Amino acid sequence: MEFIINYYFDFDIISDEFGFVVSGLWMTIKLWLVASLLSLIWGLVLAVLRQLPGKALAPIRGLTIAYIDGFRGLPALLVLLLVSGFLAAGQSDGVLPKWLGLPTWFGEPTWFWYGVIGLTLTYGAYLAEVYRAGIEAIPHGQMEAARSLGMSHGKAMRYIIVPQAVRKVIPPLLNDLIALMKDTSLVFAIGGSELLDAGFSIESDYFNGSGLMLGAIFYLVLTIPLARLVDVLLKREQRRTQRGGGDADAGEAEEPPNPNIGLAGA
Amino acid sequence: MTTNGQAMNGDRIILQLQGVQKSFGRLDVLRGVDLDIPRGSVTCVIGPSGSGKSTLLRCINLLERPTGGRVLFEGQDITAIRKEDELNAVRRRMGMVFQQFNLFPHKSVLENVCLAQEKVLGRDRSEARPRAEALLARVGLANKLNEFPERLSGGQQQRVAIARALAMDPHLMLFDEVTSALDPELVKEVLDVMKELAAEGMTMVVVTHEMNFAREVADEVVFMDGGVVVEQGPPREVLDNPQNERTKRFLGLVLEH
Ligand SMILES: Nc1ncnc2c1ncn2[C@@H]1O[C@H](COP(=O)(O)OP(=O)(O)OP(=O)(O)O)[C@@H](O)[C@H]1O
Ligand SMILES: [Mg+2]
How far is Cα of residue B225 from the mean position of the Cα atoms in its chain? Predict the structure, then answer.
């Protein structure tokens, strides 16, 4: 019993190394924020590309679907290794310029940017599927109303469909961002100095898990409030739809959905 | 090459359907519809469920592409248009009002009426807003500018939808059973707006089950069944003295109650 407490909660070690763990925490938070922001954007781009209308754009749709299926089906760690290995090797072979092969943009270290790129490639694919669910949940009458007012497909998506879709999928997006938070620890495998790495190097130095435990607590401090927030948002949404209000009634037409509407212009 | 005759025709006949056909796979929904719509006229389209009335309206503004025949709008064969932005330019000149209103739920009433003015016509807010306010006042909703659609009754929502379409200054308005989703006590307020619009000379094609409205407002009543126009003429003839057996049977069913 005493051993357990000493192993996980050695307050001497914790007070000595607290600053070191916090600096790892700070890197984790930065990595998460940057990768989240880029994933949210990249996922939306993919989702919109996937909805492009018309026969002429079928190849773009096909490529997008292949990308999404591919990156959803690969372990994030494998993507990370593929990306970092490729960029580093391309740089040392002179195929890639240094600013791209060994990026240190905004003064952040190279592993940070490898992590951002790898995680964005993977999570963009996840988030694209979330957005897609939102877009497809918008009643078809919305697109028809927008088109009948003379809006192009692009304008209808931008002003009518996407804003409604994003609102609908904020909770599942946040869920994926929670997962992304945990997956930032994968940069450990490519030499990242973040929260997990800080805990682990303390464990190696002292043969003591207090640093890792402190890291665990920090992860929970970040993820649990987000999980609660998701819950609150879902409950609120539920109340809204139970009231019978909301946009649910605004377009549930009896007509079957019309897959041709976008084709009209092609 | 536009002949003189065609140009003059486009002046009086704003919309001409020539043998319009539409099939979904093997289902032939429209089987050759011919129709002339004079400028400033009100045409009511009636017919049993599934006869292709909605599809006809949607073929007019090319939400659906006809699979055969031609649609001439203001002298232009719009079924020949292949370019997306030309198509948008045509749709801009036609307004459409739907059974389910299809207001934009994330926008206030005012924004619903301003949005396409700004994003499609390029009007700025100082131009779009007074136009929207005037139209909303006209449909009796001057005090609802900042409400969101979900807080309005069906009749109010439908009047916003009419204002939204009118804000684009359309040359032709299409109405698809716009009172069918409304509680009975709300039907009149919407029909009154439409009557006023007709009196002001708007060209309207109205798919409706409201026979009294058709009798009172329509210049021409078109009875459709099975994807074709079965009978057409002034309401006095088609509604009160139908010649075709199918028209008689349909009116018998509708007017019974
Ligand atoms: N996009 C579509 N794909 C397949 N079938 C369709 C499509 N749109 C309409 N239809 C079919 O075409 C037929 C005519 O439909 P339409 O909506 O034009 O009839 P309607 O006269 O408006 O009927 P209602 O009075 O019920 O509105 C129906 O059988 C319908 O199922
Ligand atoms: Mg219909």
Answer: 19
